[in-house]
Write a structure and sequence with these properties.
The chain is of the alpha/beta class. Helices cover 39% and strands 24% of the residues. The protein has 10 helices and 15 strands. Helix 7 packs across helix 9.
């Protein structure tokens, strides 16, 4: 004879409380993970980023992604642009210097009684003025694995950030619009006719050195790519590599006080992060690399742990 055990309501609630939902909500993309303690059970994503949503669109967008999970988990910890002024609810900035992991999360209003959504605040800096949302959570996740890290964290992206980290705190940071400028040049400038999809690393590194030596010549150097194409024939792979090198080189010249003489960690993945790594290694900088997605999830786990 078999005996079947049934959990009491309180036992079920306790078991369900161990599961929760981690959310990274950026400008163009929404990612979510169903987490049991610190282990990912399922993941999902959509194109419902903050930029495409009205104020009343955040809850439906989230429910469309995670509704099947709400039978076992209701607590949601979210980071990123969901906490911006144009997001679900504004999560005020913490000011530097501050710990990478936040404890003062903001609860978002929800009509669905199954949802308990808490949003991490961003970080601001008064002088020079700067802000971040989401990157601080990535740094918190990175520091979970390397708690003694002292140096600079570089987060390549549309708006690349250089963050000075000491004693597990964000001390200062600078943001560079290099990725966005490259996209504008490649898609909307006269160079759109010349920039292809390939990559030549030697040409990239040569352009990095040129821009670091003479950043004031950037505009002229960029037009030379167009002139070379007209006079010598198109070389789209070379043009893309050199344009990227000129822009990243100019950024490295401006960010030199951050990375020179310090350990540098690059949180990212893909070709853009590889380009920053190659450029920095060519300058002799000691580099550690880590996955941005893994760091985000680890950071969200750190936020969840701080509340339980």
């Amino acid at each position: 004879m078999q005996c079947t055990e049934h959990l009491s309501d309180s036992a079920v609630s306790k078991a369900n409380a161990m599961k929760w939902i981690a959310v990274d909500w950026g400008t163009s993309r929404l990612r979510a993970w169903l987490v049991d303690g610190a282990n990912v059970v399922e993941s999902a994503s959509s194109e419902n980023g903050m930029a495409g949503l009205a104020a009343d669109g955040f809850e439906p967008a989230l429910l469309a992604l995670i509704d099947p999970w709400l039978e076992s988990a209701q607590d949601v910890i979210a980071c990123g642009m969901v906490g911006a002024r144009q997001g679900w609810v504004e999560a005020p900035y913490r000011t530097t210097p501050c710990p990478a992991a936040a404890t003062d999360l903001i609860m978002a209003p929800a009509n669905d009684p199954r949802l308990r959504v808490n949003i991490a605040p961003g970080v601001s800096q008064a002088a020079p003025p700067d802000v971040m949302r989401g990157e601080e959570t990535q740094i918190a996740g990175f520091l979970m694995d390397l708690p003694d890290f002292e140096g600079v964290v570089c987060l390549p992206g549309t708006h690349t950030k250089w963050v000075h980290v000491s004693a597990s705190e964000i001390v200062s940071f600078r943001t560079f619009m290099t990725g966005e400028i490259f996209a504008l040049i490649a898609e909307h400038s006269v160079l759109r006719h010349d920039i292809g999809d390939g990559w030549i690393e030697d040409g990239f590194l040569e352009a990095v050195d040129e821009a670091m030596s003479r950043p004031e010549a950037l505009a002229s150097k960029l037009f030379s790519l167009r002139a070379e194409s007209l006079l010598e024939g198109p070389a789209p792979n070379a043009a893309r590599s050199r344009a990227s090198g000129l822009l990243i080189g100019m950024e490295l010249a401006a960010a030199r006080p951050y990375w020179l003489g310090r350990d540098v960690a690059i949180l990212g993945g893909g070709p853009q992060s590889a380009a920053y790594e190659a450029a920095l290694r060519a300058q002799g900088a000691p580099i550690t690399t880590a996955s941005a997605e893994a760091a985000t999830l680890r950071g969200l786990i750190a936020l969840h742990n701080a509340r339980t």
